[in-house]
Amino acid sequence: MADAPKDGREITLEQMMSLRAATEAVSAWVRKEAEDRLACLRPLLLPRRLLGDHVKSPVHEDVKDADKTFAELQAAYREISGAPFRLPNRLDSPVEPISTDLVLHRWEYLHEVNVDGESRTLSVRSPLSWVLMHEAPISLSQARQMLAGGAGRSDSDLKQFALNALVMKQLMEKNPALGRLLEALRLRVSIAESPETGKLPLVKVTASIPTFRPSDRVILSATRLSGVPIFEELLDVEAARSLADSYRERVVELIGPATLAG
Fold first, then answer.
1. Beta strand 211-212 with 234-235: parallel, antiparallel or unpaired?
2. Cα distances (Å, whole numbers) of residue 250 to 6, 170, 210
3. CA of 139: how far to CAs of 131, 198, 212, in Å?
4. Model confidence pLDDT, tens digit, residues 41-68
5. Is the pTM of this model over 0.70?
């Protein structure tokens, strides 16, 4: 993944445990703040504001360019309906109702560790990055498991998950001011893909607080101790303590060399 930390710094297991506690505390606080702010933006992220009557509803709603937007959605759906989703590539109007509730799914990616000739592929979680979607019957983690051949595959759930992701991407693209607003709230917005979900574009929001992934040796030791092949990035404490205030920096830049008149 392009956004994954690559420094692989050496730390002790004792340092890792201390950083883990700090990471969990910051992650929980930032997530709650993000959810509260997104709740305020929910009226701007309603699927019917984008697609109008192309979403099933007992209420008629005319939306400018809804036909064109739905045609774009159909094309995007056909693009991702092949492997690994393996879904019928036809998307008829109106689509099933899309939840108006917003959810944040923890961002995960695969990382291969290589230590003393031992190689293992582990799942790494980003504590301060999430995938923003309208609530679907399954989570990002469940979708990844289904697409990897896990038990309990549901085509209808996978279709709804994919559709919700595509609609969120369209909402962000059709209204760039939403991205700027979230960035002003210290949540950087980007479009990301995951190898496990193929070409499906995911709206990723990332807090402005840096995290890092330690060396493969530390990661392997930690996962051996836990017995679970999952590792979570750690808070970069020093970088967090020196976070810049972009608002202040821009104001200072605009002021330039101006001084008060004597």
1. antiparallel
2. 30, 30, 21
3. 10, 16, 25
4. 999 999 999 999 999 988 888 889 999 9
5. yes
